[in-house]
Fold this protein.
Amino acid sequence: MQLTPEQVAEYAEKGYVLVPGLLKAPELEVLEAAMHAVTRRDGPEVMREKNGQPHVVYGMHMLDERFRALSRHPGLVGPAEQLLGNRIFVHQSRVNVKQTGGAIVDWHQDFGTYHRVDGVPEPRGLMISILLDEVTACNAPLMLVPGTQTAGLVSEARINPDAEDHASAAKYRYDISLETLDGLVREHGLEAITGPAGSVLFMNMNVVHGSTVNITPLRRVILYLNVCAVDNRGETFARPEYLAARDFSPIEPLGEDCLLTFRETVKG
Ligand SMILES: O=C(O)CCC(=O)C(=O)O
């Protein structure tokens, strides 16, 4: 699949483009089953809410064949290659389960950590977000500051008071001050990413974004694939592979039906 010239122009201007309903209901059923499988894990790749519920599961494309297939879906790979002008690899993937009471994700740029910790040289990469649920203004949509793809790194490194191991890559947090955020929002505005389940966001990994707590009973699961151009690789190997890629082979796209082939395994 390829984006239209209008969609490419929108991405160039705002740093993101949303394609509503790109994935269809039978494909979402497969991803739903995969999401349940990975959120049952208890390894270090699962970050939890204070009450112990899973919040983010990292490395989904390495943990489950269905997510591996998603990372090779031509409907995602085609537009990503088109926007980056190169072949791509997955730098990081994750499931974010924003259940009722699910915690905030503070304002940040994904490239902040990828550059400073993982050594990814340039923001030639995308955060691809697949809405597994319908997202409305109510159930804690992803919010972003359009146009910040060209703002450079606006976050500042601060010692992370929650880091268990201060010698490790978790030593710092890369926060965006309220003053900086205020300036960016005054200049560019603020947008919320809403749409039906199956919609896919292609966002430059420098774009400032975050989300609030979900106080509704409506689940809001988003799957994330962060991809980079193949000549833009992390060079530090400071973090485990479920957080930062070690395999830089270009993704070989599968057929349009790559998720549907898993359908017979969807039960209960
Ligand atoms: O899904 C969310 O609530 C935000 C996630 C996010 O910003 C990220 O994973 O970079």
Notes: The chain has a mean pLDDT of 93. The first strand starts at residue 16 and ends at 19. The radius of gyration is 17 Å. The chain has seven helices and 13 strands.
